[in-house]
Description:
It comes from Heliomicrobium undosum. This protein is mainly α. The chain has nine helices and no strands.
Amino acid sequence: MSASFETAVNGLIAELSSFERNRDKISSCRAALARLRQSIQNPIHAAPYVAPFAVNVSGDQEDLLYLAAGLFVINPIHTEGVSFGAAFRHLREKSDSIEKRFSMVLAARKEQLPDLLRHSIKLLGSHGLGLDWKMLLHDADRWDLVDSAVQRRWARDFYREPARSAN
């Protein structure tokens, strides 16, 4: 991963988080979040917020930044260190269809990810579950690696049994 993408991811997530934190105090934050919601249908609405960070990144990485901006407003819960697979594991007990949905994401081609992630992130948010946004962006950037390292890690996180607390 390039240092430029790392910088862009960190800057964008910090900016989006500040909008969310200040949404009730600052009207410009509410306006920014409203435009970002529109970016789910048309990514260009996110340009004022994404373009300043999308410097010296590849076109695919810029697309990921725009995607993240739209997804973040659907579910702004940031949970440090929680991968997509680990977040989805918490839904497994709630529905029989979760494993099938998760398998579809794992088997997806990179160009299918935006649509699948949009639905999945919304589902996580509806259950009050978050994930590590920086990790998600880095994982999506490495989705097509030959060794499928991202998919294998997500699968481990999803199927792993949660640690039991000592009584």
